[in-house]
UniProtKB/TrEMBL annotation:
CDD domains: AAT_like. The keyword Amino-acid biosynthesis applies. This is Histidinol-phosphate aminotransferase. It is an enzyme of class 2 (transferase). Pathway: Amino-acid biosynthesis; L-histidine biosynthesis; L-histidine from 5-phospho-alpha-D-ribose 1-diphosphate: step 7/9. It comes from the Bacteria. The keyword NAD does not apply.
């Protein structure tokens, strides 16, 4: 029986032969003259091999990540899927769209407010983006999403969601996986999953080959600058995605750092930092919620909080004047007077809290929310 991935993928991708880089072709020998590299070069760091191209598929970190993802820390259940290392979650989004969507013809579904890169990547190849807004409490409007699946190649969901911070209930995701079995890939972006590991849906890939999960080392691992992310998917999906992966997707220095982070010591450090941030976040939420000009601090399962104020604006400019850079979300009508505040150190959050306490608000000018 033809897989859904084979049904969805454009003919041009089916016929695509991946670029045969020197590392992909491989070979055995002691003199390497196949990649137009310098055999010797100036040293610029601790490695002696910057002159050589990296492995075309960083299999060591892919296996290490798969081992980690199936550990007790997440679900305690072994994953039955394949893993692909990519240059951050953003490349994963772009790869999935370019693999399965025909420019100018196909469409995707998103549920705003959510991560802007889904629509941006779709726009870059002239796809139609169907927007099914979240409910008033930022829940998924499952009934409104379902009718669009039959004509959409991909549904992007972010859980925990950026910028709202909430988790999509697993039963909602399963309902949409069932509804899209014959028509749609359901891509769940789990960039913040280490802050709510029990909510991961990666274990469902074994039962739903139309499910794809995106992960990253940028958030809880604290490795945003090395640009390493992962795609978890059924083999039927990965066979096509892997055709579009660049010849050398992960630089060796990044791969070495990722490999260390995924070893036992690195995983323990990540868990400590995640637990510390959660404690700081919860304390910050409690304190900010008590301020008289704060309308709501939304529940968060991430390393940030979304705050809605009763003031005329979201206080982004006020905080900026204090040297505190946050993320203004008020461009989205659903997020009027909202600012997203990442959770930093205890000292940074104490300074931010004090700045908010010092805000010269006038009770007579409070906006009704």
């Amino acid at each position: 029986m033809m897989s859904l991935a084979t049904k969805l993928v454009p003919e041009v991708v089916k016929n695509l032969i991946p670029y045969q880089s020197a590392r992909r072709i491989g070979g055995q020998g002691h003199i390497w003259l196949n990649a137009n590299e310098l055999e010797q070069s100036e040293r610029y760091g601790e490695s002696e091999s910057y002159n050589r191209y990296p492995d075309f598929l960083p299999q060591l970190i892919e296996q290490a990540y798969l081992d980690y993802s199936g550990s007790d820390f997440l679900t305690g259940r072994a994953l039955q899927c394949e893993t692909l290392a990519v240059r951050g979650a953003d490349e994963a989004i772009d790869l999935l769209i370019r693999t399965f969507c025909q420019p100018g013809e196909d469409q995707i579904v998103i549920c705003p407010p959510t991560y802007a890169m889904y629509e941006f990547c779709a726009d870059s190849i002239a796809l139609k983006t169907v927007k099914v807004p979240l409910t008033d409490d930022f829940g998924l409007d499952v009934a409104a999403v379902k009718p669009h699946l039959k004509n959409s190649k991909i549904l992007f969901l972010c859980s925990p969601n950026n910028p709202t911070g909430n988790v999509i209930p697993q039963e909602d995701i399963v309902t949409l996986l069932e509804a899209g079995k014959a028509s749609t890939l359901v891509v769940v972006d789990e960039a913040y999953i280490e802050f709510a590991p029990q909510t991961s849906v990666a274990h469902l890939i074994a039962d739903y080959p139309n499910l794809v999960v995106i992960r990253t080392l940028s958030k809880a691992f604290g490795l945003a600058s090395i640009r390493v992310g992962f795609v978890l998917a059924d083999k039927s999906v990965m066979d096509y995605v892997a055709r579009l992966i660049p010849p050398y997707p992960i630089a060796d220095p990044s791969a070495l750092i990722a490999q260390k982070a995924l070893q036992e010591e690195g995983l323990a450090a990540m868990r400590r930092q995640a637990n510390t941030l959660i404690a700081i976040r919860d304390g910050f939420v409690e304190a900010v919620s008590a301020l008289p000009f704060v309308a709501q601090v939304y529940p968060s399962s991430t390393n940030f909080v979304l705050v809605r104020f009763k003031t005329d604006d979201c206080l982004y400019d006020y905080l900026l004047q204090k040297g505190i850079v946050t993320r203004n979300q008020s461009h989205d009508p659903r997020l009027a007077r909202c600012v997203r505040i990442s959770i930093g150190t205890q000292a940074s959050m104490a300074e931010t809290l004090q700045a908010l306490k010092d805000y010269p608000f006038d009770p007579k000018k409070i906006t009704t929310v």
